[in-house]
Write a structure and sequence with these properties.
284 residues, 3-stranded parallel β-sheet, alpha/beta, Rossmann fold, 6-stranded parallel β-sheet
């Protein structure tokens, strides 16, 4: 068996084109959806990611601002900046690029963002709404994974989904999204004994551990859909994920590549959330 490769770039483009149409409708009503990204420090990976967000926003006809500050910025100064953006009606989405410098309390910073502008979906209010199945903002990477499954016609309801990883950004919200779609969900992580015993039961396997090639073909149920969230740069400069692609594609039924799988979807769903925020603001 050779897995069907899930083309995240192509699916993200479909999502973006739909968002672009919605942005055009807003533009006709005099609304320019605005996304502001705050970048603290000079982390190269963060700079690359922020640049991609800015280019996509501009392409869709959104107002895109990047506020860059040195790593010496104080926590109080960052909180004051967020408060200003909370009060700015031209800003519909606020995103603080992570990671932050070590002298800052990440949780305190994220909680300072107005939940109505929290397009990353990290505010406790939005997390709680996800848990309760209420309308809020969904974290972009899990949101994108659901779209990958849907666009690929991979059934969720009644399936056994196993998640490897328990982060607040991906693992935990991913499980809740799948549960809301009537999957049976099992959480596992790096300290789970006999990990393969669980992963080999998965109809849908989501891997977000941050450990290169942790999951191999031996961990995968034949025919399973495998979503690889990880991204790592090897010593030879090539990118790879948390799943060993070569062995996994011989067992899985569907598989996301790295790069070109989950990554493009994360940015696409950020655009979706920003557009949604502008639409909600128009209705209030």
């Amino acid at each position: 068996m050779t897995a069907t490769i899930i083309d995240g770039k192509a699916i993200a483009e479909q999502v973006i084109l739909k968002v672009k149409d919605r942005v055009s409708v807003l533009n006709e009503q005099g609304i320019l959806p605005g996304l502001t990204v705050i970048l603290v420090g000079d982390d190269p990976a963060s700079q690359t990611y922020v640049g991609s967000k800015e280019r996509t926003s501009t392409r869709l006809g959104m107002k895109s601002d990047v506020i860059s500050r040195p790593s010496s910025l104080t926590e109080d100064e960052l909180l004051a900046l967020i408060d200003d953006l909370n009060q700015d009606h031209s800003v519909h989405g606020i995103l603080v690029q992570l990671p932050l410098p070590k002298h800052m309390d990440e949780h305190k910073i994220l909680q300072a963002i107005d939940p109505r502008k929290d397009v990353d979906g990290f505010h406790p209010l939005n997390v709680g709404k996800l848990l309760l199945g209420q309308q809020g903002f969904i974290p972009c990477t899990p949101f994108g994974i659901i779209q990958l499954l849907d666009y690929s016609a991979i059934e969720i309801e009644g399936k056994h989904a196993v998640i490897v990883g328990r982060s607040n950004i991906v693992g935990k919200p991913m499980g809740q999204l799948l549960l809301n779609r009537h999957a049976t969900v099992t959480y596992t992580h790096s300290r789970t004994p006999d990990l393969a015993e669980f992963t080999k039961q998965a109809d849908i396997l989501i891997v977000a551990t941050g450990q290169p090639s942790m999951i191999t073909g031996e961990h995968i149920k034949p025919g399973a859909a495998v979503i690889d969230v990880g991204i790592h740069r090897n010593s030879d400069g090539r990118l790879s994920g948390d799943v060993d692609f070569a062995s996994a594609k011989e067992v899985a039924g569907a598989l996301t590549p790295v790069p070109g799988g989950v990554g493009p979807m994360t940015i696409a769903m950020l655009m979706e959330n920003t557009c949604l925020s502008a639409e909600r603001a128009l209705r209030t």
